[in-house]
Amino acid sequence: MSMDNNIVVFGKGGIGKSTISSNLSSVYALQGLKVLHVGCDPKHDSTLGLVDGELIETFMDKYTRIFGVRDHAELKPSDLIVKGRLGIDCVEAGGPEPGVGCAGRGISLMLEALQDLGVLKEGGYDARVFDVLGDVVCGGFAAPLRKGFAEKIVIVVSEELMALYAANNIAKSVKTYSSNGVYLAGLVANLKDGKVEREKLERFAEILGTRILEYVPRDPAVRKAEFARKNTVVEMAPKSRFAKSIESLAAKILAVRREDCPIPTPMDDRQFYKGW
Questions:
Q1: Catalytic residue list
Q2: What is the tens place of the pLDDT at every residue in 137-186?
Q3: Are strands 212-216 and 89-92 parallel, antiparallel or unpaired?
Q4: Which of 3, 20, 47, 240 has the smallest CB count inside 10 Å?
Q5: Cα separation of 138 and 157, whole Å?
Q6: Vertex 13: Cα angle to 9 and 14 (nearest 5)
Q7: Class of residue 100 by CB neighbours under 10 A (exposed 0-12, middle 13-18, buried 19+)
Q8: Partners of residue 82 on adjacent β-strands
Q9: Does residue 75 have a pLDDT over 60?
Q10: Sheet with 183-190, edge to edge strand ranges
Q11: What CATH code is assigned to 5-274?
């Protein structure tokens, strides 16, 4: 089976996108799909729960170590990919030391290398999950959109204003690069306050021309799995509310089709802060 679902999970820093992304990859792998998980964040911790709590060597580290002594044509996919649990292939972009260089450039270099090595070719994986920082959608962090590697865009939000502001900016990038075949599959609401009224979020999704795919519950199982650093929540606590929510989300993402997703209609900054 080859579905070639290229799923890009965007969201503001600290919003929970890495937890959601890694658990999505685990769900797909547990369902027997061949999965590539790509962390596109300088802090390179997206794959922690997929490789028994170890920080894997990042692409940027390998780039400086391997590319300096070997011709690019001699590289193999195994030079860049780490095999995680459940058979998930893992890659972390990484980035330069804080204050030195551009992390977005590292993401662009990594995607170019993966493409050149055939890792992103059609039929290679049933699902590719990209976990991308979305505070600032510069050219580097927008590389999955700009370079046409993306397909289904999922934005993780909360009820907080800055999370919604970041989501609105990400929707602008999806609109800009919609000609590359990318589309906004929907929002995932990872609420910090389980009692918050949801009408505002539903209204926000409506304005963007999209939908809320899932409301992810606050669950102690998430914190327990993150501190254990050994596996994902869907493995550690498969009957938890969070795990059931991610299983539901995973199915909904696979079911989304481009023809059902209009080009987003984000607000300009003046509209956003005026209120809606």
A1: 12, 17, 43, 135
A2: 565 567 677 666 789 999 999 999 999 999 999 999 999 989 888 999 99
A3: unpaired
A4: 3
A5: 19
A6: 100
A7: exposed
A8: 90
A9: yes
A10: 82-83, 89-92, 35-40, 127-133, 5-11, 152-157, 183-190, 212-216
A11: 3.40.50.300
% of the chain exceeding 70 in pLDDT: 87
Sort 266 into a burial class: Cβ within 10 Å, 0-12 / 13-18 / 19+.
buried
Name the phi and psi angles at 75, rounded to 5.
-65, 150
According to DSSP, the residues that pair with 92 across neighbouring strands are 39
| pTM of this structure | 0.91
Contact 167, 13 (CB under 8 A): no
User: How far from chain centre, in Å, is Cα 8?
Assistant: 4
> Distance (Å, rounded) from C-alpha 219 to C-alpha 209?
29
Confidence of residue 256 (pLDDT cuts 50, 70, 90): very high
Per-residue pLDDT at 258: 93
The mean-pLDDT minimum among 53-57, 104-108, 139-143, 267-271 falls in 139-143
Percent of the chain with pLDDT over 90: 58
